[in-house]
Design goal:
The structure is a single chain. This protein has a two-stranded antiparallel sheet. A two-stranded antiparallel ribbon has the order 2-3. Strands 4-5 form a two-stranded antiparallel sheet. It has 14 helices and 6 strands. It is elongated. The protein has about 300 residues and is mainly alpha-helical. Helices cover about 45% and strands about 5% of the residues. Helix 5 (about 85-95) packs antiparallel against helix 12 (about 245-255).
Length: about 300
């Protein structure tokens, strides 16, 4: 029998969703720039009827609970299968975690990652992102600067500017001019960090799902971030280690259990996750947002 068949949105239910709530705070941004959000709630489908009434659950958990009640969560695994998986249960207990709370954590993390990696909305680079790329590209190639002779780059860089409807191209290839532009942008951006317009990102029209590997990476790193909030889990870590073998082993089994991967190696190799995380560290999902959950803390 499931620990909860249907949520009634009571304060008592906060307890069983405690792990989910902690994970949501790991997944979502608490914007350091004081911006309300990168995109508006009106631009995403929450999959629930969020009303103005007071709800006992935190807003992100309310979305999750409504999706759970409406049977909208992907159903590749069941609570009964979860309980019957002795190896997974042993790892959860050894790490000092609550089995039922962890079940809802698993459901939430899977649903959240699916909403980003499979159904997520791609976002265009913000003005801030574009300027940062410009600054980093140019300054990383500056060898030296002399007030008399100007800047020296270690390679040729050229920037072309085209104006729609106007013939011709403005080309900037002077090392000094390029260095000056990058340096001026860097100084000005420090003064304009609270400009909301710099962080705004337009939604892209194409909805391209990520491959399985980045999806697995996102699922694993989200759970590892949750583990960072649990003192009982951190006691198993060796001095200087980011995570313990038990943490990685549990996540590897969950990757197979949730059918993110059907490869048997996830059941036998406790070190595979470590190399996998290193391999896919630069995966392309940072410029994606969930089509269900807001990406900022409400």
């Amino acid at each position: 029998m499931k620990p909860i068949d249907k949520f009634e949105f009571t304060y008592k239910e906060r307890t069983i969703l405690r792990y989910c709530d902690l994970a949501s705070k790991c997944c979502l941004y608490e914007d350091p720039y004081g911006l309300p959000q990168r995109i508006g709630l009106d631009q995403i489908s929450t999959g629930s009827d969020l009303t103005a009434r007071v709800c006992a659950l935190p807003p992100v958990m309310e979305i999750f609970a409504r999706r759970y009640n409406d049977r909208k969560l992907t159903n590749y695994f069941t609570y009964e299968n979860y309980i019957d998986n002795i190896e997974i249960q042993d790892y959860i207990e050894e790490l000092g975690l609550d089995i039922d709370k962890f079940w809802f954590l698993l459901l939430f993390v899977y649903d959240f990652c699916e909403s980003v990696c499979i159904d997520g909305i791609r976002l265009a680079d913000s003005a801030y992102d574009q300027l940062q790329k410009l600054i980093e590209t140019i300054t990383s190639h500056v060898e030296r600067f002399d007030g008399q002779t100007g800047s020296t780059l270690d390679t040729e860089i050229k920037m072309d500017i085209r104006v729609k409807g106007v013939k011709g191209v403005i080309t900037i290839d002077s090392p000094t001019a390029l260095h000056f532009i990058a340096d001026t942008c860097a100084k000005r951006m420090k003064e304009a960090e609270d400009w909301t317009c710099l962080r705004y990102q337009e939604l892209q029209d194409d909805y391209k799902s990520l491959s399985d590997s980045p999806y697995i990476y996102y699922f694993a790193t989200t759970l590892l971030k949750f583990f960072d909030t649990q003192e009982s889990v951190k006691t198993f870590r060796k001095k200087g280690a980011k995570h313990s073998v038990k943490e990685r082993a549990l996540i590897s089994r969950l990757i197979h259990f949730t059918k993110l991967s059907k490869k048997e190696i996830w059941l036998t190799d406790d070190e595979i996750l470590k190399s996998f995380l290193k391999q896919y560290k630069e995966s392309d999902f940072w410029n994606r947002t969930s089509n269900i959950y807001p990406e900022f803390l409400l």
